[in-house]
Amino acid sequence: MKIYRGIAQGSAEWFRIRLGLPTASNFDKIMTPRTRKLSASWKGYACQLIAERLLNIPTETIKNIEWMERGKLLEPEAVQRFEVVNDVVTVPITFIKTDDGTMGCSPDRGIFGSDPDRPLKVLECKCPAAHTHLQYLLFGHGTDEKSQDKYKCQVQGQMMIAEVDEAIFYSYHPAGPALTLKTPRYDSFIKDLRSAIDEFNDKLHEYHELAKKLGDWQAFQEVVTPVDAEYGEVPQGVWEVPQGVDEFLDRGEDFF
After folding, report:
1. Which one of 101, 236, 238, 240 is separated from 125 by 20 to 30 angstroms, measured CA to CA?
2. Is the overall model pTM greater than 0.70, yes or no?
């Protein structure tokens, strides 16, 4: 695995290292945890990742970025409380990729032993709104099967990529009690998840190549954040529509 550190979450560099890659927070779109087969959502997720690769722009929404900013403001306070209560030191992690670079995850922090390049545990530190924090306190990782399934794929995916045996979920709100939930590694589930991701990545490559044949894609010259793409002054490719229908390659029934 490869661990990235010291890159600000939400920055252009942060988006660059994860652009177009399947990430643990979306693994439920790749495998249905109850059947452990390829999810019916794989096509939509594949198109999302292919669009990122073709245009050099992440598909995160600005609303999601705003929630990330709120979390960053409270995270130092939350981490300090977690470390004091549990008598442990944690280290910030930007992103982790597998050795083959085909998938990644973004745990907030890691707990390390003597090897600085190999975490013993990963930590997800949440600083949500009061009502969301209360849901975690009362119902754990989710209030329904869908959200519970999503978390199961995400957390087992994190442990697979980070090569650890335990993941810690910590939810903090300054006006209430904190919550710590520990999840052990489930090797049988991870084996099936890895198989589904490998199948998905094969399809992702196939449809990426097909998408490139559809015509010219006018991409940003470099990866930009969603905020900069919508509001900022950023270098970009030529977005004007080519003149004349002869310059287009339209998809026909015989394309595939």
Report:
1. 101
2. yes
The rounded distance, in Å, linking the Cα atoms of 77 and 103 is 30
Question: Which tokens go with 168?
Answer: 């810690």
Q: Of all residues in the chain, what percent carry a pLDDT higher than 70?
A: 84
Averaged pLDDT of the chain? 87
State whether the Cα torsion 44-46-52-54 is positive or negative: negative
CA distance 167 to 192: 19
Please, are residues 201 and 102 in contact by the beta-carbon 8 Å criterion? yes
CB atoms within 10 A of CB 91: 13
CA distance 139 to 148: 10
Which of 3-12, 149-158, 233-242 shows the lowest mean pLDDT across its residues? 233-242
DSSP H helices, the chain, are 12-18, 42-55, 62-86, 130-139, 145-162, 187-212, 226-231
Residues 6+ apart with CB under 8 A from 35: none
Q: Model confidence over 31-62: pLDDT tens digits?
A: 999 999 999 999 999 999 999 999 888 887 54
Q: Which CATH number fits domain 2-247: 3.30.70.1400, 3.90.320.10, 3.30.70.20, 3.40.50.720?
A: 3.90.320.10
Which of 98, 163, 91, 99 shows the shortest CA–CA distance to 125? Answer: 91
